[in-house]
Specification:
By secondary structure, this protein is an all-beta fold. The protein is about 0% helix and about 45% strand.
Length: about 220
């Protein structure tokens, strides 16, 4: 699988983390054995990023000609020890999903996870984990962290103007994941309050992982 070059994260500093307004209650349905339905208030959350004075402009990922794929504005995070995992059937492929870290870093938190194709059929990922309306289809911009206690959903940090110039602080990927391939992925969010020590991780087509510890 060929990956696009990714700029380093050092050129970015957080200038604002906008708290979401709770605009109404919805239901988050657990997928792939992720547990029971949980009430979650819909939340709008955005993180604006700016370049430091001595850094270069962020480079676009991909060839820049497909607005669906958008791009990513963050360096790949290091994978850690597995803290949650599950066997998943998605798109006819047998997958193993493992969350390898959810770390709080100041006002941000970074999720790392891997998807391994354990079967003999390649997985057509398409835009199943992305945010196509924002021009971030072939990324994990569509996943989220869900705090059922405080009724908040944290979306992936992003910058730029959708749909053609949007970038996310997250991984992008190819359409296909081949048998035997291990796909390392990451995404950055606004950090939950310090008293929140566990949170649900909604990986869309890969299911909801409940009570994932935040370190």
């Amino acid at each position: 699988m060929q990956k696009a070059n990714t700029p380093t994260l050092a050129g970015y500093v957080v200038t604002a983390v906008l708290a979401g307004l709770l605009t109404g209650c919805g239901m988050l349905t657990a997928q792939q054995g992720g547990g029971e339905k949980q009430p979650v208030a819909k939340e709008k959350q955005a993180v604006e990023l700016a370049n430091s004075a001595d850094s270069a402009e962020p480079a676009s990922t991909g060839d820049g000609g497909d607005s669906e794929t958008g791009g990513q504005a963050g360096a790949p995070a290091e994978q850690g020890t597995v803290i949650a995992g599950r066997e998943v059937k998605a798109g006819g492929a047998d997958l193993t999903v493992e969350i390898t870290g959810l770390k709080r870093q100041g006002r941000l938190s970074t999720l790392t996870f891997t998807v391994t194709n354990k079967g003999d059929t390649r997985w057509e990922m398409s835009s199943n984990m992305g945010d196509t309306p924002a021009g971030l289809g072939l990324t994990v911009a569509g996943i989220s962290l869900v705090d059922p206690v405080n009724g908040k959903r944290y979306t992936v940090a992003r910058t730029g103007t959708p749909p053609t110039k949007a970038k996310c602080l997250c991984s992008d990927y190819d359409v296909w994941t081949e048998p035997g391939e291990v796909l390392p992925l990451h995404a950055t969010f606004a950090a939950p309050p310090p008293d929140v020590t566990k949170i649900n991780v909604d990986l869309k087509v890969l299911g909801v992982f409940t009570d994932v510890p935040i370190s």
